[in-house]
Amino acid sequence: MMPSFRDQLIHQLQCEGAFTETGARELTDAAIGEGIEAYPGELALLRTIVRTARVAVRNRDFAAIEQALINHASDDAAARAETKR
């Protein structure tokens, strides 16, 4: 039996070394479980990180990807906290 899309995504995130198993599961569940933006501008924020990653990969600037992921995690957490208020 072929793994589900969710399991494949979790595996890919872990293989890239960007996330622990728990982090990969949380990110995947948040991405495919909500179906709508968790806060206004979430989709735009995700599109920005994807564009940044594409350029950084082309230039083999993996430090830029790592920094973009760190910045995204911080911005995302702040936006989610603000939305819960």
From TrEMBL:
Taxonomy, superkingdom: Bacteria
- Protein name in the entry: Uncharacterized protein
Give the source lineage, highest ranks first.
Answer: Bacteria, Bacillati, Actinomycetota, Actinomycetes, Kitasatosporales
